[in-house]
């Protein structure tokens, strides 16, 4: 199968391109937002292939995977007039939780029965209003980085992209309070503005995070972060704000979840002083992540959906 998608969400795409298909990634000379091509900081297999818009116009495509509204127009222009959902099977993957007033959380792809809207969490499907567009949930899966936890540093790892711009959404304003309970090390795009590690390669993140005693997830209102799932795979205990999908994704045995910041701070202090409890909770976290967010389950779910969308037998999709 030939699947066209844009390199938008690096961690999610890293898992998606591990499948059995050929993944066509638009590339432009400047490698900007609409033509990044292959990842530069993730390890992708050879089945992820870069194509220019001119090459795409001449290439047979079985499925278009959309992730941003304007990709509808890009598809029609770059695919020689072929329209997603009409001339070629199409699915729209929504990575984010909706923003704004609850009554106004209408999805840009609402009332598009020619598309399938796929959410990455059940929370997102619950809150987005899709109208008559059919929806499905395919939960995250990640490439297992292996158990790497040492917890040798009595510090917390926190991963937030654009923490200053996103502010209260990502719980950036809570970091001072959490920092009084335990020292914090911040990683992510834009983390340098707050003295953190700026956009580390995935390999470095997987090396450095499990040296910290705890993974702190202060997010108030975003979709379920893939770094949280990766931290659980690494064997890290989790202290998290109990919001959006986190209470369903992180079992109580894996750490502490609450909307009470003082309770979370108390958990941080306890785990800083009890490395054995931290290690045991991290093992629970890894077991839970492997059971629910494995790469194999994720790819199988997508193969089933691709077969449904293209009308091909499952054995042909996975051949």
Describe this structure in words.
The chain is of the alpha/beta class. The chain has two domains: 2-141 and 295-317; 153-292, Glycogen Phosphorylase B (Rossmann fold), CATH 3.40.50. The chain has helices spanning 10-16, 53-56, 71-78, 122-127, 163-166, 175-181, 202-208, 226-234, 246-249, 261-273, 275-292, 295-310, 314-317; strands at residues 2-5, 22-26, 48-51, 63-66, 89-94, 116-119, 135-137, 153-159, 184-188, 197-198, 212-217, 238-241, 255-258. Strands 3-2-1-4-5-6-7 form a seven-stranded parallel β-sheet, with helices on both faces. Strand 11, helix 8 and strand 12 (238-241) form a beta-alpha-beta unit. The mean pLDDT is 95.
Structural topology:
Blueprint: E1 2-5, H1 10-16, E2 22-26, E3 48-51, H2 53-56, E4 63-66, H3 71-78, E5 89-94, E6 116-119, H4 122-127, E7 135-137, E8 153-159, H5 163-166, H6 175-181, E9 184-188, E10 197-198, H7 202-208, E11 212-217, H8 226-234, E12 238-241, H9 246-249, E13 255-258, H10 261-273, H11 275-292, H12 295-310, H13 314-317
Parallel strand pairs: 1-2, 1-4, 2-3, 4-5, 5-6, 6-7, 8-9, 8-11, 9-10, 11-12, 12-13
Largest sheet: 7 strands, parallel
Number of helices: 13
How many E strands?
13
Provide the spatial order of strands within the biggest beta sheet: 3-2-1-4-5-6-7
Parts with pLDDT < 50 across at least 5 consecutive residues: none
Basic shape: globular
